[in-house]
Amino acid sequence: MTSRPFSRHPLVQLTLVRIREFMREPEAVFWATMFPIMLSTGLGLAFSARPEPVIAVAAAPALADQLRTEPGLDVRPLAPDAARTALRNGEVALVVEASDAGGVTFLYDDTNPEGRSARAAADRAIQRAAGRVDPVKTTTQKVQEPGSRYIDFLIPGLIGVGIMSNGVWGLGFSIVDTRRRKLTKLLMATPMSKLDYLLSYVIWRVILLPVEVVIPIAFGALAFGVPMRGSWMAVGVLTLLGSMMFSSIGILVGSRVRTIEAISGIINIVIMPMWIVSGVFFSAQRFPEFIQPIIRVLPLTLLIDALRAVELRGAPLGDQWLQMAAMGAWLVATFVAGLALFRWR
Amino acid sequence: MPPSALRVSDLHKSYGDVKAVNGLSLEVRPGECFGLLGPNGAGKTTTIEICEGLTSADSGDVEVLGRRWASHAHELRQLLGIQLQDTQLSDKLTVAETLRLFRSFYREGPSEDEAIDMVQLREKRDARVGVLSGGQKQRLALACALVGRPQLLFLDEPTTGLDPQARRQLWELIREFKRAGRTIVLTTHYMDEAEVLCDRVAIVDHGRIITEGTPLELMASVEMPPKEPRAHAATLEDVFVALTGRHLRDD
Questions:
Q1: Mean of pLDDT over chain B
Q2: What is the pLDDT of residues A299-310, one digit of tens each?
Q3: How far apart are alpha carbons A275 and A298 in whole angstroms?
Q4: Which of A34, A196, A214, B82 shows the smallest number of beta carbons within 10 Å?
Q5: Hey, what CATH class is B6-244 in?
C-alpha cells in the first residue's frame, strides 16, 4: 500500500464528483438557492403588507348606512337577488337582509372565518344604530412584533422544506440516474467501497447545507426583519441532523428504482404529504386531533418544530432533545434499510 | 503466475425459464487474448459477468487468477480491469476527472495523465465526457479499466456501435496491451474483430461453447460448400454460420 495524498482518497474523489455534477447543472443550483428566496418574497409580501382586513358584505340599501359605521366592513348596497348571487360567488362574505317586523337576517357560510367575523361586526353596527350602549368600555392595542408575524412563521418552515426537497430529490434522482446509466454496476466492478459511495452523497449535502440555511435566514432578516433569537450553533446542529436524515431518506427511496419516471413518482409520494401536514405554510395544529401523533413524528415536522423553537423563541438546543433523538432514529433506520435494499447494478 | 488466468467449468445460470448459460467451460492462459464469439443472447455477457464477480452462477466453478470470488473478492477487484457494455460515464465530468476518480479506487497503477496517453486522448484531457465522440468515449472506458494496472482485462463488446475508423483505432490499442503481455478476455459478435485480436476463440451459442481454437484452426476446419464458390479462404464468419446454421441475430 503506497501512501497517497488526502485529495486522492476515493471518498474525496466521489464527493468531488457529486459537487461537480451539481455545480455544472445550472438549473439545480438556481432551484436550490433562489427558490426559498422567491417563495418567501411572494408569501411575505402577500401576508405582511396588509393593514386592517376589510370584508366585503352586501346589504339592502336601507341598512347600508348603518353598517358603514363599522370600519372593517366594505358595504355594497344590492337588491336581495343580486346580494345572494354575490355571496354564492364569494364576492361578499355576508348578506344582510331586512326581514319582517323590523328584524334583520344574516346569510353567510359559517365555515368561512370572514363570514363569521363580518356577522359579528354587522350585528354590532345594527344594534348600536338601534340604540344599544356597550356597558364596558374597551380599548385595543395592536401587536405586530417581529417574531409573531406570518413571515416569521414561514422562514423556518422554508428552511426545513428546502433541506427536505434538495436532499430527497438530489440523492434519489442522482442515485437512480447513475444506476440507469449502468455506471453503478461499473463502479461495483472496481474496488470502490459501497459505504464510500453512499457517504459521498451525504457529505455533498452537508457541504451545501450552509447555503440552504444561511440564504433564507439572511434574506428573512434583511427583507422582513425576521429575528434569529437562538444560537447559530443550535440551528447548525439541527439542520445538520436534518440534512443527514433527509439524505438517508433519499438513499432509501432511490435504493431499488431503475427509471427516472418511477423515482419522480415515489419522491412526490414521500414528500408531498409532508409539504402539506408538517406545518410549513400553516400550523400543523389545524389537522384533526387523531392524526396529530403521526404528524408530530414525521421527519419534516420534527425538523421544523425544533427550528421554530430555536429561531423564533430562542429555545436552547437541550430542550429539543426529543426531536433530535427522533431525527437520529429516522437517520439510522432509513440508512440501514437503504443500504440493505440497495440495488448495486 | 497461475497456470491459467481464468478457468470456468460447467457453468450454469438461468433467468426464470431461460437458460442463459448451460454447462459452459473454458480456460484462458496467461498472456493470451481470448475471444468469446456468438450471436446476441448466446450467453456471452452473462458468462463474462459471472467471471467478473458481478453476477452469481447457479452452479459451476470459476477460478480467476487462481482465486475464487467467494473467498478473494476484495483482492480480485484490485487485479481486474473491467469494461462493460453500454455504460454511460458522467457527461458533466472531464476526461481527467473521470480517470482521477477511477484511479482513486486502486492501490497502484498509472496516473490519470499516463492513462490518458495510453488511449490517445491527450487533446481531450479537459473536455467534458458529454462532448466526446463514440470512439473517444469507448477509449475513455478502456482507460478506466486500465488505471488499476490489471493483470486480467475483461472487455465486453468494446467496439459495438463504432465506425470502422474508430474500431481500428481501438483494435490498435488492444493489440498494444497484448504486446505488453497482458491477458485479455473479450466478447464480440464481429468475426473480423476476433480474427484480428484473438489468439484463441470460443464460439458460444445457447449458453455453451460449440467450438474452440485459434482463428486459423477454426477457419481450416470448415469446408466451403461447393455451391458457394468463394474468392477467399473461409473466414470466422463462415465458421460461425456453418456451426450455428444462421446469421447473426439482432434480438
A1: 88
A2: 999 999 999 999
A3: 11
A4: A34
A5: alpha beta
